[in-house]
Design goal:
The complex is a heterodimer of chains A (86) and B (196). With 86 residues, chain A is an all-alpha fold. Chain A contains six helices and no strands. Chain A is elongated. Chain B is built from eight helices and no strands. In chain B, helix 1 crosses helix 2, helix 2 packs across helix 3 and helix 7 crosses helix 8. The termini of chain B are far apart. Chain B is elongated. Classes of the chains: A mainly alpha (86), B mainly alpha (196).
């Protein structure tokens, strides 16, 4: 998006959602983005769902039990390979 | 770098066997979890972790402490996994177009649907939702699945992830965005307010 402001369509807003959430939109486009959100409940809803999708994706793979398991055979394989010059 | 690490690093560079064992035991669980997520094969994941450790051991002299050892190892194992993905034969991928939003000529969304309800506090519902999200991510075409894993789950910056994949940063960002949109499309029937 250039810094020239214009009224965004819903299609354009959705194209820029990722940059908006990353804080990567410059002031003009960010203002246009937020002005559109102020008048478009459908886009507010889409943005909320998009944000929630990112959150759910990260949460889905954060099981602490996975991190605690240390297979002994793998530990031995790594250390053995190191000793034999791997 | 965390406080205890300079000492561990010095012991590793001095060739202390106990230091290597300490590092491997401390890091294997986490690195294996990363590799399993990316590769979805226990055997490939274990091989990638072993490769990653051996690469790290060879590169120890050049490690300057610009990040923690954990972060450095994380990067190495992600790269080891991506190298393995590149050698896999690609299956023909299904299109995600039907999961993406469509638009009228005036730029408004077709069938916007109701807002999403927040997930409930019930642990059973939470576990089921987690499984559905995982399964949704796993069902995406590989390029979008990998993009979401690298950006949203492994937390890599777009530039770094793009470099590891050998593509332009903007191309990577587009894959992430389309992957997220497709995942949102998969989750909508579960989470939209009118759903049971």
């Amino acid at each position: 998006m250039t810094d020239e402001e214009h009224d965004l369509s819903c299609r354009e807003l959705i194209d820029f959602i990722a940059d908006y959430l990353d804080g990567a939109l410059s002031p003009g486009p960010r203002r246009a983005f937020e002005e559109h959100l102020a008048i478009c409940p459908d886009c507010v809803s889409y943005l909320d769902g998009y944000r929630e999708t990112i959150r759910l994706g990260a949460a889905a793979f954060s099981e602490p039990s996975e991190l605690e398991e240390v297979p002994e055979d793998l530990v031995h394989a790594v250390l053995s390979a190191r000793r034999s010059g791997g | 770098m965390p406080d205890a690490e300079p000492e561990l690093l010095a012991r590793l560079r001095a060739g202390e066997e106990t230091a290597y064992e300490e590092l491997v035991r401390r890091q294997t669980g986490r690195l294996l979890a990363v590799a399993r997520r990316v590769l979805r094969s226990e055997e490939d994941a274990r091989d990638a972790v072993q490769d990653a450790f051996l690469q790290a051991f060879r590169k120890l002299e050049g490690f300057e402490g610009e990040s923690s050892l954990s972060t450095w190892l994380h990067r190495i194992v992600v790269n080891a996994c991506l190298m393995r993905l590149r050698t896999r034969r690609r299956k023909p991928e299904q299109s995600i177009d039907e999961l993406l939003p469509s638009f009228h000529d005036d730029g408004h969304r077709v069938d916007p649907g109701p807002p999403w309800r927040p997930p409930g506090p019930d642990p059973v519902e939470e576990k089921e939702l987690r499984e559905r999200v995982r399964s949704g991510i796993d069902s995406l075409p590989e390029i979008y699945r990998t993009a979401i894993l690298l950006r949203d789950i492994e937390g890599l910056e777009s530039g770094e992830a793009a470099r590891l994949l050998g593509i332009q940063t903007e191309a990577f960002k587009m894959r992430v965005h389309r992957g997220r949109q497709a995942l949102r499309g998969l989750l909508e029937p579960l989470l939209a307010e009118s759903s049971p």
